[in-house]
């Protein structure tokens, strides 16, 4: 009698399991610092307006890199681009340790943004080996595996800030993030195999030929995308408008405006992560029972509700309610949305399609992040969060226009 392996139990066949384990190791360090990035920027001298400009610049560079990454993933294969730029992304964390003036933040931000070129290849490789009907479950299990070991790490980051000061504590957290990142990426480089060798074309093209083919190819993919994919593009744009205005300023608002201690904010982040992880597998049963489209709609509705709870928050109890609603929605939305993106594309176009989903979101985030910084700095610290609610509502309306018949089986 043969017992299923661990990776089979988690619906992560082939290289999806390697990606999951390497991302798990990396996330242990990264989750110590990620919730506090804006606080670190503020501590080295950047105003909320400059934080918006920095993150908008990051979105612009990442958008370009995602387009290039999608083309490379489908033309030349997945593995090489994942390995090379994963190392660049991991080492960018060490640069933050030496930043003394906020203008120098541009260096690690640019490194991490350029490294975003591997994102489409990563997402495509993750879903390549999954059966279409099991993608939501596989993606949920990926999130489960990568989240469990790091659930308490945001609290650790808050404790480091409380004990060693904002700058000292977060610099320690960035060092740990870089260290675990290098360990995770090294494992990835040793174990990862290629899942798609790419289109058999000449790999040594002249730069102008490459740029021409790159532009024409992405234009062709966009023009010939299914109606469902185009509607999901619009959804991604609307959601990015809302998140661009709010996500960069959430930790600043909670710690600065509401006066919550950093370790308590880290504790709330831990609670949200634990609830999200606990609900992942039940959420996949909902997805399989009611379908990807309806699951995404239900989860999307909760986003606008969650922002309303956040705007009205006055203390710890309200913030706990906000984290509970948000984590429940994330548990349902994450797997269903990623599976929707994969099912609305074919294996041959998946890298470029997933890149375009990211690019539309990132381009929208550029003005949204700047606008959020202006609103936060000039009109009121709660205004960006209030202004995001209509965007989330419109996004949900657009999601209802996608039909199950738009899905691909590849």
Layout of secondary structure:
Blueprint: H1 6-9, H2 15-33, H3 37-43, H4 48-76, H5 79-95, H6 106-115, H7 119-128, H8 135-147, H9 153-164, H10 166-191, H11 207-223, H12 227-246, H13 250-257, H14 262-290, H15 292-311, H16 316-343, H17 350-379, H18 383-399
Count of separate structural domains: 1
The geometry reads as globular
Distance between the termini: 32 Å
Q: Return residue spans where pLDDT drops below 50 for at least 5 consecutive residues.
A: 1-6
- Calculate Rg over CA atoms: 20 Å
- Regarding CATH, which class? Mainly Alpha
Order of helices and strands: HHHHHHHHHHHHHHHHHH
How would you characterize the largest beta sheet? none
Fraction of residues in helix: over 70%
What's the architecture, going by CATH?
A: Up-down Bundle
Mean pLDDT: 84
* Strand tally: 0
CATH topology: Growth Hormone, Chain: A
- Based on secondary structure, the structural category is mainly alpha
Walk me through what this model shows:
The protein has 410 residues and is mainly α. The chain contains 18 helices and no strands. Mean pLDDT is 84; it is low at 1-6. The protein has a single domain, classed as MFS general substrate transporter like domains (Growth Hormone, Chain: A). The two termini are 32 Å apart. Helices cover 77% and strands 0% of the residues.
